[in-house]
């Protein structure tokens, strides 16, 4: 199909969907969809993040949402012409459109499949709220410049900023816990919308969550996917950003975006006051004093990884050497000539082992469970971000990114994982020869889905895999260790693997445990699991109202924080404006019923044992 045909088919579908939606009848919309269609709505019609599967579920959801949303004025977006693309092996027309509801301006993405029997129908459909009618319109023409008159007796910009950030005469509407990418992104969005927000962070400086990590740390995803809202990285920056460079950018970003931040501030937790419809929270400042604040919203932006996980390892308390968690590791400079055992074969474990080896340490990596290994690079692991290398504005790529429903995302990652495993066959074969245990995710969806499901279990190779394959870094399997003794690891064959230092690269506790420690058991149980996919294919409790009024969560990569901070900010703004209740309705449907053919694949759990790596990529005959 050529571009003119694609344009005509998309324009016809948009005209028909406009008529169908204005009729208010779900059945009029359903005839424009494939029977196996997917519809993802991000606030536009449901005031939530929902995905619906098949026309029966979609019809039921439309019956609830069409009367209240009052969608209208559907039209193709002329900034992104329809185009023919291939999605998981299926050729479709991809079109972007705009429409309005009583809430505000919305956008959508549709993938249309052709048929000789009639007009094109929607296979996948995204609808999203772009901005509220009452919110500042970031796309509008700027207001005329104010007269160049200055009040020389008024406080300076710096004096006003210092006074604003003290909160001596008011409480913030929103308290944000954490000044990493998640906290900065949501604070910038709220500032743009005129919502008063304060960030608190225990670090001495903004960016310390990256600055204080191990020296060799560099982002493994490419710069073009990583911009924060409103202020992209300079074009002169490297493709892979060093952690100190990123930390300094965060500090500058907070200044440039006029964000209110308290550093050296420990968030001590709090209680929800249902009578006041606000929180009573405590913050300990750097001088030891405490402030009691009463925000209406608390946004937990401490990240997927916040509380170090130190598992019980038999006999480790008897070890005579030094034991530290990966979060406390800074540099390998002081470890030259020492025997170091690194427990954990995820990204941190590999990076720390590689740095130690390069500094002259005698390093052993202990693998606790199988890992997914992919070479880093734009043509390797970076292919998951290829959407951002196609010349569009970042915001346009973000829209196309979230338009992919979970089942197609999963299928796409399966195809990519197979491709990457074939590309990396020599490397993976070398790892197998030294006994390294590989997997490709429970359902062969690879490293990216591992991150989205559980936040770890993979390594993007920047050289450590070859060091393991060559024997320059030794490998032990945790199952072969009986216990630790004063001298090191006692192995099942009776040998002792000596060590002077043990580094625990064992990850972090989940956010539900963070909630438990800060807000108590009742709130933690009320909210439930955080991160990982729910039955609809949406991340649990992320960027949406939770069962605890006024408690929100944001986390993830820079791209996720940039994309979803907008939707989180829009919901908070709607709550502040009285358009959206803080409570998630008790009678709201739990969500779409997952398709039967995917029921055993959600959350990475299979009813059958996971496939071995050999089931994914045929092995050469030896």
Q: What are the key terms here?
A:
7-stranded mixed beta sheet, Nuclear Transport Factor 2, Chain: A, FAD/NAD(P)-binding domain, globular, 3 domains, 29% helix, disordered C terminus, 622 residues, alpha/beta
Description:
By secondary structure, the protein is an alpha/beta fold. It has 3 domains: 3-133, Nuclear Transport Factor 2, Chain: A (Roll), CATH 3.10.450.50; 167-306 and 511-576, FAD/NAD(P)-binding domain (3-Layer(bba) Sandwich); 308-508, FAD/NAD(P)-binding domain, CATH 3.50.50.60. It has 16 helices and 27 strands. Strands 1, 2, 3, 4, 5, 6 and 7 form a 7-stranded mixed beta sheet that branches. Strands 10-9-8-14-27 form a 5-stranded parallel beta sheet, sandwiched between helices. It has a 5-stranded parallel beta sheet with strand order 16-25-17-18-21, covered by helices on one side. The longest helix is centred in the N-terminal third of the chain and has 21 residues, at 3-23.
CATH architecture of the largest domain, please? Answer: 3-Layer(bba) Sandwich
**Given this structure, which CATH class of the largest domain is correct?**
Alpha Beta
- Please give the share of residues in helix: 25-40%
The class by helix and strand makeup works out as: alpha/beta
Q: Give the overall average pLDDT.
A: 90
